[in-house]
Amino acid sequence: MKFGGSSLASGERLQAVTDLIVAALDRGIQPVVAASAMGDTTDALVELARGLSPRPGGRDYDLLLSTGEVVSCALLSISLNERGIPAQAVTGPGAGIVTDSRHGQARIEHIDPRVLHQLLDRGITPVVAGFQGASADGAVTTLGRGASDTTAIALAVTLGTDHCEIFTDVDGIYSADPRLVPRARKLETITYEETLEMASLGARVMHPRSVELAMRHKLRVTVRSSFNNQPGTEIVAREAIDIETGTRVRAVVDDDDVARITVEGVPDAPGLSHALFEPLAEAGVNVDIIVQNLSHQGATDISFTTGLEDFDRAIEIVRAVAERVGAAGVTWSDEVAKISIVGIGMQSAPGVAARMFGTLAAEGINITSITTSEILVTCLIDEDRLQEAARALHTAFELDN
Ligand code: ADP
Ligand code: ASP
Ligand code: MG
Questions:
Q1: Which of 93, 136, 191, 231 is most buried, judging by how many CB atoms fall within 10 Å of its CB?
Q2: Is residue 144 within 8 Å of 154, Cβ to Cβ?
Q3: Is 89 among the domain residues?
Q4: Pocket around ligand 2: residues whose beta carbon is below 6 Å from it?
Q5: pLDDT tens per residue, range 200-247
Q6: Between the CA atoms of 276, 280, 281 and 286, what dihedral angle is there, to the nearest 10 degrees?
Q7: Could you give the CA distance from residue 362 to residue 356 in angstroms, rounded to a whole number?
Q8: What is the mean pLDDT of the chain?
Q9: CATH code: domain of residue 58
Q10: Over the stretch 86-127, which tens digit does the pLDDT of each residue have?
Q11: In a domain, 22, yes or no
Q12: Measured CA distances, 42 to 70, 81, 262 (Å)
């Protein structure tokens, strides 16, 4: 059972979550609990550090960020014990979570489950701090924003549990972010593949790496609310939803956490894309939509998008490369956004992309670049038009509630 930040944002919420865990135990289920930091704690810690350093990072910063989850798992365990449930708070390192040493974006290398097994054998419910682990040299690491989901799935997989419940502040996975598209509807089931694309495209509801892991191990995952008793969304294998594949587009995903960077007048020669994207990859910058135009008089423009989190690092690298290769200049904008449609049925349905472009055109929304894969189409548009675009596409693809 994993509980997100808003599910644990106050003493009252901690009590409500305690009730949910007690109810599971009453049903004869022995849960392992993973907890996120309370409310906006992690953001507050980020702000504190940024007040002292423009780009905090590394070992100390990870130790700082990891404290949010330490607080919440300790409080939750205190609350469970108070209810007569033997429980124990465990930090990520304490739970045997070993990661690489990429601070801020660490990946779990393995989990030594001995401590958790010992607790479970003694009938003690472990309450594990999400989002954190330790590298081989003992430094506390964090797994990336939103990665408590990944802690939960990794624990479920390692311990061989048959189900992982992700408790959050909405009733499940919706056909669009319900905060942006009021007519969004909750999906009863969705495939791993679609959830992974949605998460990677910026739908916050699940951390992308957690979905990848669940998919690889075919773990049963339910996303549901900690605020009510609704059944939630089941993430299932592709085979399980044949009947629904008629619904070609299943969700609209928005992301305004995006910037576009363009290198103008790049001399058109072999190896230039490599010269640009290699150092970005080395610096761990996630590059998304890449567009390179046909060259005119031996020069071309290359554009790509990146998350705002990576922007500062990206622009620094790009400026250096542009100078080195003799490009005409670098421009950028953070007033762009990505709007995407996702659905496994799309691959067998021609005309889906055309319908998307037509819908945006009818709204007078300009598309600056496009990418597609088997099960998604993404357009880069003006940030100002994002909400209109999301709502129009949601209606056009017959997703409205
Ligand atoms: P938690 O703290 O529980 O991990 P998050 O804030 O990380 O919660 O994720 C839940 C939020 O994800 C919701 O409040 C919702 O606004 C957002 N969200 C974005 N896209 C979707 C979607 N398609 N379905 C459900 N929620 C979505
Ligand atoms: N507390 C961390 C964050 O805000 C991890 C999580 O919530 O999943 O990113
Ligand atoms: Mg989350």
A1: 191
A2: no
A3: yes
A4: 4-5, 36-37, 42, 68, 130-131, 145-148
A5: 998 989 999 999 999 999 999 999 999 999 999 999 998 776 655 556
A6: -120
A7: 10
A8: 95
A9: 3.40.1160.10
A10: 999 999 999 999 999 999 999 999 999 999 999 999 999 999
A11: yes
A12: 11, 26, 32
Structure confidence at residue 132 as a pLDDT band (50, 70, 90): very high
| Calpha distance 133→383 (Å, rounded) | 36
From its phi and psi, is residue 255 left (phi > 0), alpha (psi between -120 and 50) or beta?
Answer: beta
Overall average pLDDT of the 381-387 stretch? 97
The mean pLDDT value for 282-290 works out to: 89
Which structural domain range is residue 84 located in?
2-169
Q: Which amino acid type is present at position 173?
A: I
Provide the pLDDT confidence category of residue 79 given band limits of 50, 70 and 90: very high
User: What sign does the dihedral 300-306-308-312 (CA atoms) show?
Assistant: negative
User: For residue 75, how far is its CA from the centre of ligand 1 (angstroms)?
Assistant: 24
Task: Give CA–CA dist 205/197, Å, rounded.
Answer: 12
Please state, in angstroms and as integers, the Cα–Cα distance from residue 34 to each residue in 37, 156, 367, following that order: 10, 10, 41
- Give a yes or no: residue 295 inside a domain: no
Tokens at 16, concatenated: 């409500």
| C-alpha span between 325 and 273 (Å, rounded) | 11
Q: Is residue 88, in this structure, part of any structural domain at all?
A: yes
DSSP state of 340: E
Angle at 246 between CA 240 and CA 252, to 5 degrees: 90
Pocket perturbation via mutation, ligand 2, pick of 128, 131, 132 by most ligand atoms within 8 A of CB: 131
Residue 332, both tokens:
């950028």
Q: Give the residue-averaged pLDDT of 123-145.
A: 97
Ligand 1 atom nearest to 176, measured from its CA: 23
Q: Which atom of ligand 1 is nearest to the CA of 254?
A: 20
Total number of domains in the chain: 1
pLDDT at 45 over 60: yes
When pLDDT is averaged across residues 125-147 and rounded to a whole number, the result is 97
